[in-house]
Specification:
This protein has 13 helices and 15 strands. The chain is of the alpha/beta class. The strands form three sheets. Strands 1, 2, 5, 6, 7, 8, 9, 10, 11, 14 and 15 form an eleven-stranded mixed beta sheet that branches. A two-stranded antiparallel sheet has the order 3-4. Strands 12-13 form a two-stranded antiparallel ribbon.
Length: about 425
């Protein structure tokens, strides 16, 4: 690892199609429930894809002043909500004494698409005077980080990763690096997304990337299954509080896990298709293991990127085999996207939390809907039912369009 500072996770915040808050989302995940259903956000009757993982019952008024809500798009609402959960969970108090040592990195893959569609329609129908004066700050992706820093008075490093489906993982990994090298003592980091809109669904649909299993929404996301026909779009946010071990110990904070490795790579191959044999993903996993100083055999669980696409699932499986060799068949590998759908820029944040909880609570969430495994996907994907087990080290994989890859490694905190 770079430097000598150890970094731990002290706070978690989740907003997912499985529920509002960590307990609701985690409980549903370990029970193998699906958060996928018919699209209600707009009339999708004429679309080939009419299903998604929508967040139900989220009230931004619980986290944001009423007069400020209309100044932000939904992805920012989610970021503030999940960040509030994480900060409260951590017990971290941000004040004049430490504000400059606390930072924020929260990214999104696509940002304020709902606001873009709404304001473009208003412009076409009634001219530029009907564009909201808050339109620009509603759609700029770094306004998720900006608004969270404003809410909490966090004056340290502030940035926003935008790396498609790897965004949440890159945000957490970059925050880890900042603390590790001494540029901050604590960071609020993760991903957020909300683009279940006509353009969002329509754009992915015409790419043939989405499942059209409209009559069975809960069974549509089926990573590693031979019958998979594309991913299901989801929305939400996953935010964590990272701290230096010294900071966490100084205030007797609860420690969920230690983050010990971060890998990055590029496929340098194709806009949307992973590199042959999962070569880029394999290099990313190897980089994370090297950073952590771990032999591959020490890993017990991999939270797979596992999107439920043909090439994505096969090539991630190939990458795992390339890195872990014989140990690949002893690993537990599951895709929680089978339940949440694919949260795009928020996926890495959500799945990092599921990986952390697998360590902290000793249970691995399942891959549901795995009825008939693809012959090319022959690992232990924890099918259908969660598994109680002692997880010492877990990897969370995130691979995005453009061939951008991120891997995080978490370890059990042992108090030493």
């Amino acid at each position: 690892m770079i430097g000598e500072r150890r970094v731990v996770i002290t706070g978690l915040g989740l907003i997912t199609p499985l529920g509002i808050g960590v307990e609701q989302s985690w409980s549903a995940a370990v029970q193998g429930k699906s958060g996928i259903g018919p699209i209600t956000r707009f009339d999708a009757a004429s679309f080939p894809v009419r299903i998604a993982g929508e967040v139900e019952g989220f009230d931004p008024g619980l986290y944001i002043d009423a007069k400020e809500i209309k100044k932000m798009d939904r992805f920012i609402h989610f970021a503030i909500g999940a960040a509030t959960m994480a900060v409260e969970d951590s017990g971290l108090k941000i004040n004049a004494e430490n504000a400059e040592r606390v930072g924020v990195i929260i990214g999104a893959g696509m940002g304020g698409l709902p606001a873009i569609e709404h304001n473009h329609k208003a412009f076409l129908e009634k001219g530029h005077r009907r564009i909201s004066p808050f339109f620009i700050p509603m759609v700029i992706l770094n306004l998720a980080s900006g608004n969270v820093s404003i809410k909490f008075g966090a004056k340290g490093p502030n940035s926003s990763a935008v790396t498609a489906c790897a965004t949440g993982s890159h945000s957490i990994g970059d925050a880890f690096r900042l603390i590790q090298r001494g540029d901050a003592d604590a960071m609020i980091a993760g991903g957020t997304e909300s683009v279940i809109t006509p353009l969002g669904i329509g754009g992915f649909a015409v790419m043939k990337a989405l499942s059209t299993r409209n009559d069975e929404p809960e069974r549509a996301s089926r990573p590693f299954d031979a019958g998979r026909d594309g991913f299901v779009m989801g929305e939400g946010a996953g935010i964590v509080v990272l701290e230096s071990l010294e900071s966490a110990r100084s205030r007797n904070a609860k420690i969920y896990a230690e983050i010990i490795g971060y890998g990055m790579s590029s496929d340098a191959y194709h806009m949307t298709t992973p590199a042959p044999e999962g070569e880029g993903a394999a290099r990313c996993i190897k980089a994370a293991l090297k950073d952590a100083g771990l032999d591959p055999e020490r890993i017990g669980y991999v939270n797979a990127h596992g999107t439920s696409t043909k090439y994505g699932d096969e090539l991630e499986t190939a990458a795992i085999k390339k890195v872990f060799r014989d140990h690949a068949y002893k690993l537990c590998v599951s895709s929680t996207k089978s339940m949440t759908g694919h949260l795009l820029g928020a996926a890495g944040g959500v799945e990092a939390i599921f990986s952390i909880l697998s360590i902290y609570r000793g249970i691995v969430p399942p891959t549901i809907n795995l009825d008939n495994p693809d012959p090319e996907c022959d690992l232990d994907y924890v099918p259908k039912n969660a598994r109680h087990m002692d997880v010492e080290y877990a990897i969370s994989n995130s691979f995005g369009f453009g061939g951008t890859n991120a891997c995080l490694i978490f370890g059990k905190y042992k108090g030493n």
